[in-house]
Amino acid sequence: MLRRIFHPVLSIIIIVLLFKAQTASSQIPVTEKTPPSDEARSYSKFRVSIDGGMAYLIGSTSTAKAQMKNYGISDQEADRYYNELKLGVQANASIHYMINPMNGLGLDYSLFTTGSSVLGYLDPGDGWTKFYGLFCEKIYTNYVGASWFQNRKINEKWSYYGKLSVGLVLYRNETRIITAPVLITGSAPAIMGESGIFYSLTRHISVGISLSDFFSSIRKINLNDGNTINEVKLDNDTKENLSRLSLSTGVKFHF
Predict the structure, then answer these.
(1) Which end of the chain is more exposed for a tag (fewer CB within 10 A), N or C?
(2) Helix, strand, coil percentages, rounded to 5, for the chain
(3) Strand-strand pairing, 220-224 and 103-122
(4) Backbone φ and ψ of 10, nearest 5°
(5) CB atoms closer than 10 angstroms to residue 235
(6) DSSP-assigned letters across all residues of 40-60
């Protein structure tokens, strides 16, 4: 399980770049008023985006790795376990209504999943019994949020964009310790920033690549062993860090 939240540097960079581009365009002196172009009058009002790619959890795992020694797991196996757990896949979808050709408001959905497993043992402390088996986690996070979208044209085919989203993330961790399954769930506020570039295949379809950063941490979880459900409050050292960086490719529909 991942600890400590990463400072949201990329989100700040994305916001600064967006406002810088908007401010720069507003400072260009206007000497003559011209009527709106045909493109401005007939721009696409809705944008639907579907993309997916790889994501990397950026929380610290040093404390969790140290604890794995208690289960007979070597440093090399602990490193492998958390390297696998940090790297996962994500799928995203969004829809935005464009207020004007450059700015829009909309909704976002993002699914992230990852998992890992390792062999270890439990020692009940009786001096002669040990239970050997598999320790594994399968993590799912589902995010839903509202976002502000802004894009700029580079030329007739290429454009770049930025997006800032705020919402709620739902956390699900299907854990198994040898033969004992435990379901860990929780929820928390989250923020996501994204920037990317896309190429227009037609007026209504474009493809592109994007970099995003996601920040959230869980401070209260529910533990379900199949018989009882216990609520656990986490402190700063034990909170579940869900923050990640991701690289995605996808398609956008304009209509």
Answers:
(1) C
(2) 15, 55, 25
(3) unpaired
(4) -65, -35
(5) 7
(6) HHT--SEEEEEEEEEEEE-SB
> Tokens in use for 220?
């209260």
Alpha-carbon separation of residue 243 from 49, 169, 231 (angstroms): 22, 11, 22
> How far apart, in Å, are the Cα atoms of 53 and each of 92, 112, 219, 245?
9, 10, 27, 11
Helices (H), 87-235: none
- Count CB atoms within 10 A of the CB of residue 23: 9
Q: How many helices (H) and strands (E) does the chain have?
A: 4, 12
Amino acid code (one letter) for 211 = L
pLDDT tens, residue by residue, 97-138: 999 999 999 999 999 999 999 999 887 777 778 889 999 999
- 58-104 confidence digits (pLDDT tens): 988 888 888 888 888 889 999 999 999 999 999 999 999 999 999 99
pLDDT, the chain, mean: 86
Distance separating alpha carbons of residues 244 and 118, to the nearest angstrom: 23
> 236 by DSSP, 3-state: which?
coil
pTM equals: 0.82
Amino acid found at 51: D
- Write out pLDDT tens, residues 191-234: 999 999 999 999 999 999 999 999 999 999 999 998 999 999 99
